[in-house]
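Task 17 of the worksheet. Students: predict the tertiary structure of the chain below and write it out as structure tokens. Keep your answer in the requested format; marks are given for formatting as well as content.
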Amino acid sequence: MRCRGRPVDSASYVPPAYGGVPLHQRLAGSLRELSSAVLERLVDHVPVYGTLPDEELRNDIRRVVEQAIRSCATVLRTGELPDDAQLQVLRQSAAKRAEEGVPVESVIRAYHVGAQECLERMAPHAGPDDLAAVQEAGLLVLRFLEQMTATVVAGYFTERQAAASEEQSARQAVLTALLDGDDVRTRSAHWGFDLPPCYLVLGLSVGPHPDERADGVSPLIAVKRKRRRLRVELERHVGAPVLSALGADGGIVLVPRRVPAEKVTEDDWNWLAGVVSHMSRVAGVEIVAGVTAAAPEQVAAAAGLVHEIRAVAIASGRGPGVHRLSDVLLEYQLMRPGPARDALAELVRPLADRPELLGTLRTFLQCGLSRQRTAEHLRIHPNTVDYRLRRAADATGLDATSGSDVVRVRAALSAHDAIFAHDGPA
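Model answer:
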């Protein structure tokens, strides 16, 4: 590919010369000296290169530097940029730096630092009559740097995408093994994935974002943005590989912890509640989570449990946040299928067709038996609360304002919610 601005006829091209000596000859003749100077400058000006093993600097990195100088000399000699095959060494080197975790900005800066070192070492050879040659050489080097930057970025991110795809495949394979309870140790070792002593297992219910229902907004795009924000915020707070399978309305998340499940403390749960709260705020959605701690071999059973905890928390009106089994013990037990649950649900069956009475009864219990708070929550007059509670008592024979009936009312509502959630309205 010929540099822009050069004549098509190569015979008309005159290589830039400093002091009567073509610049490409000066570069080629000083190759070893220049490459050593560039390596020293890289270590001084691009800190990450100073952390590389000395053997790598003196071999692999030097080889790439020498190739870049040769390519630059060829550009100055011919006026033409190298083709893709000639840049293969630079592309492969960028891929290696990506594999090593060298930041892409450091990789790009290294090439510019190298070009600067070469030009500065050639500059003293230019005399007053070489102004046109200096300008010509500067333009050619800039065009060469432009091409090298594109080549390096392409090589770097091709490797990064491949690594990210492999890492994601490993995560999904390990997550599948954990949820299936399928020889998780062997599967994780196969993928080179270290299992922690335990996971905090979350079963999430994620509410819709307003954009999902906004006119003129693609619901699919809104859902993808919501999921991406949830994942990014989760990874940001956890700081370790998180395994997750999230759909539009929730899913499962495994957060690694470096202590056994039985040693997870209240501080751990409070931290997790804070993480979920941040996720909710950043994504702009409500999140209800059932949670528990489990060793890797117990994740499959724990996943089933947290989804049940989440369902109980939602059915019993617990609201957004993190809920453990200890938070919903009574409701969880009362919602288990059996004759006792069915009998309890029968107590509030007369209210099945009176949602205003059922809702007032539920809110009254959630508000700590305060008629004033209930009225404020429902935005009705306190006298209306009294009226509805009396109607509910007349229909069921259970008086929520009486201490002796409160426990039975709670139990009956929990049983009713369980049946309603699984079977639909009675």
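Marker's comment: The chain is about 60% helix and 10% strand. The first strand starts at residue 17 and ends at 18.
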